[in-house]
């Protein structure tokens, strides 16, 4: 069992994942402290953190959390096996995968997302984990139903040649997570989030 006063080392792919990692840690380890989150930028760079994070987690006073997206990998189990490469993991080493992208966890609190964005709740997928391209699903919903301010933040400008999202995409969704999103509501609609929540809850006997 991870100590409730453990000091966390956290690594993830992007700013949005960072905000959700912090929600997980703060929910189940409210008395813990943590280093500035290591945002790797891509799965390849994040994968390189596995071995050093495993070494850190051998210290009983430390805990580590790595979060990545499943993306187009076949399944969570094979991704985890690939990243662990047969290495035994310490008890304080936590590794979780959002299915298929972190936006599935965002949409999983459909009540909050509807209130914040203007997208009707009944238009939001009941199981966003099953969406093959959940980021595009989110963008399509906002484009069709969202408030003008949310559209301006999340959608790329008409002049954008390469960007698929708006310049304020991450900042806007991070603010949404901080102000509206509730993990215990969201986990009801996202099995991958629920698995992560259960894992952390079990570590503190709070399940």
- Percent of residues in helices: 40-55%
Protein structure class: alpha/beta
Total number of β-strand segments? 5
H/E series, N to C? EHEEHHEHEHHHHHHH
How would you sum up the global shape?
globular
Largest sheet: 5 strands, parallel
Strand content: 5-15%
Uncertain ranges: none
Distance between the ends: 13 Å
Number of helices: 11
Mean pLDDT: 94
The oligomeric status of these chains comes to: single chain
Radius of gyration: 17 Å
Report on the structure:
With 207 residues, the chain is of the alpha/beta class. 47% of the residues lie in helices and 12% in strands. It contains eleven helices and five strands. Strands 1, 2, 3, 4 and 5 form a five-stranded parallel beta sheet that branches. The longest helix has 14 residues, at 15-28. It is globular and about 50 Å long. The two termini are 13 Å apart. The mean pLDDT is 94.
